[in-house]
Design a protein that fits this description.
Shape: globular
Mean pLDDT: 79
Order of helices and strands: HHHHHHHHHHHHHHHHHHHHHHH
Number of strands: 0
Structural class: mainly alpha
Number of domains: 1
Oligomer: single chain
Helix content: over 70%
CATH class: Mainly Alpha
CATH superfamily: MFS general substrate transporter like domains
Largest sheet: none
CATH topology: Growth Hormone, Chain: A
Distance between the termini: 44 Å
Length: 501
């Protein structure tokens, strides 16, 4: 009797020890993946800081270098156009020199551009520095979501792939704060310091690359199986799951290595690949067509048109936009793996539609009045908040989830090109269009486009929450008709079929 009791106690103790060991393994794994995502996302601070700081710095640049309104639009918007060069080159580079090598190259190019801008004696040199900086940012915005999605376990992929958008928002906030802090310095000095501080994040990126591992999918593509397995062991807490994932990646990678003409497949896509391109590239384009770049780059100008005056008030009010974007994105990352991608997109696009239309009414009918000024701040903050709760972070998650390994770098690059071109067009034409159809008219236009984005989400965006990257690829190829509702029915059929076995 006593022997049985002791044996039972020993078994219970052993079970508790095994359970504790599993918990500790899961704890360590989660922390390692989290750290990798954070370090990789430091690249996104580069874009965010540039966007945020330029909204304030351009006020002083215009005074110091005596540039025209058209030149202001060019300086602000050209970075987004040129970044497509970095994105296209980054897609090829990420397959040749690896995801980490591409991050390092982008950070180096960005540093060189920042040095040129901060030392620019005239508009020409400033523009050259802006072009170089844009290429570096193009590398960063392409490779970061690809890297994170490839190291993330399925259960937390949405959360971790949202990190780039979080860090973009953090960078924007830092840029706004920098503009406010250095606003009192001499005009010739203030904007140079504002821009020059942007080199600091790229230094931390260099240190981060010493810590994070290479993408396991890239390692498999280059036949470095042992290294890939070691990375998967660090990023997954179940060894059986590691072997299963490695086999899945190996199977897909074998097809990837055999596909010589990736660009031809994208140019003449199969029905499944066409659906992926519509979803991945479409969501990228709508992210910028809704006018977020105008809200962020020109928020001081928008507030000025509402009746708010004085650099301190304008830059101080603009910081409210940065705090709103940063706070709401933190809410989004908690929800993205719990309630899914599509519900957040609905909330985001509908909310942006209402805020843009309301802002158009305020700027048309209530400007220069106390209620108009307060309402303008509320609706600008509301617009960027709804952006950050959905289409901001979900865009980057979706565009890396929907493409298979053999196409991911190049297809994502196409989406990023569309994103950056539209972003540049919006930034470079905003002031001119506002002068043509009035500031209120611009936001009526953005409201209409946001309403169209609601319809796009309904028809073309499937739910990818909780599915492996390989399962997502199967769903796109299995759907007979490319409509959101029917795709979801097909997803449910696949899940039911899988559960039978």
């Amino acid at each position: 009797m006593f022997m049985f009791t002791f044996r039972k106690c020993d078994e219970t103790a052993q079970e508790e020890m095994d359970l504790e060991q599993k918990r500790q393994t899961r704890f360590n794994t989660n922390h390692f993946v989290f750290a990798c995502a954070v370090f990789a996302s430091l690249n996104s601070v580069l874009l965010g800081y540039d966007v945020g700081v330029m909204s304030g710095a351009i006020i002083f640049i215009q005074q110091d270098l005596n540039i025209s309104e058209v030149q202001v639009e060019v300086v602000v918007g050209i970075l987004n156009i040129v970044s497509l060069i970095g994105s296209l080159a980054g897609g090829k580079a990420s397959d040749n020199i690896g995801r980490k090598g591409t991050m390092a190259l982008g950070a180096f190019i960005f540093q060189f551009g920042v040095i040129l801008m901060s030392m620019a004696p005239n508009f020409g040199i400033l523009l050259i520095g802006r072009l170089v900086t844009g290429i570096g940012i193009g590398f960063a915005i392409l490779i970061v979501p690809i890297y994170i999605v490839e190291i993330s376990p399925t259960t937390s992929r949405g959360l971790l792939t949202s990190f780039p958008e979080i860090f973009i928002n953090f960078g924007i906030l830092l840029g706004y704060v920098s503009g406010y802090v250095f606003r009192g310095l001499p005009v010739h000095t203030s904007w140079r310091i504002m821009l020059g501080i942007g080199i600091i994040p790229s230094v931390f990126i260099g240190l981060a690359l010493l810590v994070i591992p290479e993408s396991p999918r890239w390692l498999v593509m280059n036949n470095r199986m042992d290294e890939a397995r070691l990375v998967l062991l660090k990023t997954n807490d179940n060894e059986m799951e590691v072997d299963e994932r490695l086999n899945e990646i190996r199977k897909v990678a074998s097809n990837a290595n055999g596909a010589r003409l990736v660009w031809k497949e994208l140019a003449i896509p199969t029905p499944g690949v066409k659906r992926m391109l519509i979803t991945g590239c479409g969501i990228q384009c709508f992210q910028q067509l809704t006018g977020i770049e105008a809200m962020v780059y020109y928020s001081p100008t928008i507030f000025k048109s509402a009746g708010i005056t004085g650099n301190s008030r304008l830059l101080g009010t603009t910081m409210a936009v940065g705090f709103t974007k940063t706070f709401v994105i933190l809410v989004a990352i908690v929800l993205i793996d719990k309630i899914g991608r599509k519900p957040l997109l609905y909330v985001s696009t509908i909310g942006m539609t209402l805020c843009a239309l309301s802002l158009g009414i305020v700027l048309s009918l209530l400007k220069d009045s106390p209620i108009g000024m307060e309402s303008a701040v509320v609706f600008v903050c509301g617009n960027v908040g709804f952006f950050s709760i959905g289409i901001g972070p979900v865009c980057w998650v979706l565009c890396t989830e929907v493409f298979p390994l053999r196409l991911r770098s190049q297809a994502t690059a196409i989406g990023v090109v569309g994103n950056r071109v539209i972003s540049g067009i919006v930034a470079m034409s905003f002031l001119s269009i506002a002068r043509w159809i009035t500031m209120g008219g611009v936001f009526f236009l953005f409201g209409l486009i946001s309403a169209l984005s609601v319809l796009f989400v309904h028809k073309y965006v499937p739910e990818t929450k909780g599915k492996s990257l390989e399962q997502i690829e199967t769903i796109f190829h299995s759907s007979r008709t490319w409509q959101g509702g029917e795709l979801e029915i097909e997803e449910q059929r696949l899940v039911r079929t899988k559960s039978k076995y």
